[in-house]
């Protein structure tokens, strides 16, 4: 069985290069092997501290919290990666296995969610496991089942996305192919009863293709034909632009609370997690889970959540923190592909680009053109290249640069853009709207003047 291909078919080697660094299949980076620890449920504070200890014992003591909410242990060797896997498996953690069917850290607990996505996601996982589909799908293939609420998954890339909506008293799911919520292609609306069938039908069709395609590579018209018996109407994308909240979060059980804490640039020393785990146990936190957009969510009584926030002042506790709107990969020297010191530049930007970083846009700092930290479009991208740093406006890291900046002048370029916004932004106008109004030509002019 085949489907219309909208993008060139990928070779086997390309699919391997796109694979994720799982615990059992670590990936080589600039500072050694990297192993990913994906969790499907919160873990105890002591387990968080233990992961930090293992990262120090087996790796170089650096841990990433990825945009999708996974721990990534860095600086491993082939031998220490095997030892890490053995030690992690001994902990009996709720490790994610097989096809990622993602629901978010607050699934089933959120006082604001439209529907609990866990029953639906569990039935999808069971189908995939029963029919052994994971190995027959493309690398990085992911399903998102978004019940809504305080931490929506709109920014995550998904091959298949279900978004809960209510019409009067009935629950439905909007279906999208590929992309983020803003860029995914709507396929229609299905009832709660038909939602599992919708996803499993698409997965089963893909699994028998000669080359298993990603969601973005499928022809929406053809997939709509597959789903015609169960889809009710065209879906409408409702992209959420409000920032994800940090700090205290309300749960459906009013006796409990949660708090979201951001990890600057998605990376910390193992000692940070060890300290956080030990302090969380002391104040009575009952569970901790890595979450979307490089963050941790802690669970417990409201007073315990507040105490752990007070203890975490160096981390991100508010969406007004400028570091919350900077997406940065590990960069140089951590990654062998990187030509940009992303974290050092991010710290400079957070301190010195106050006008630029008003919360209305994402500043994407990428060590290379892969764009690992922010695969979707960003209004401003600084991308490391061999012959300089590319500034890409309103695009992806692989798009045509607006200007190539000499290595070492990136902070100066950000200063020029910050000054442009300070002078040109209208009353009540956001930085994003200001830069969009000014356009690429005006930005290039400001950069040329600022770098001369």
UniProtKB/TrEMBL annotation:
Q: Which UniProt keywords apply?
A: 4Fe-4S, Heme, Iron, Iron-sulfur, Metal-binding, Oxidoreductase
Q: Name one Pfam family in it.
A: NIR_SIR_ferr
Catalytic EC class: oxidoreductase
Which Gene3D superfamilies does UniProt cross-reference here?
Sulfite Reductase Hemoprotein, domain 1, Sulfite Reductase Hemoprotein,Domain 2
Q: What is its EC number?
A: 1.14.13.83
Recorded GO molecular functions are: 4 iron, 4 sulfur cluster binding; metal ion binding; precorrin-3B synthase activity
Locate the coiled-coil region(s) and give their ranges.
Answer: none
Q: Where is the Nitrite/Sulfite reductase ferredoxin-like domain?
A: 43-86
Keyword Transcription annotated:
no
Instruction: Identify this protein by name.
Output: Precorrin-3B synthase
Give the organism the record lists: Endobacterium cereale
Q: What is the lineage of its organism?
A: Bacteria, Pseudomonadati, Pseudomonadota, Alphaproteobacteria, Hyphomicrobiales
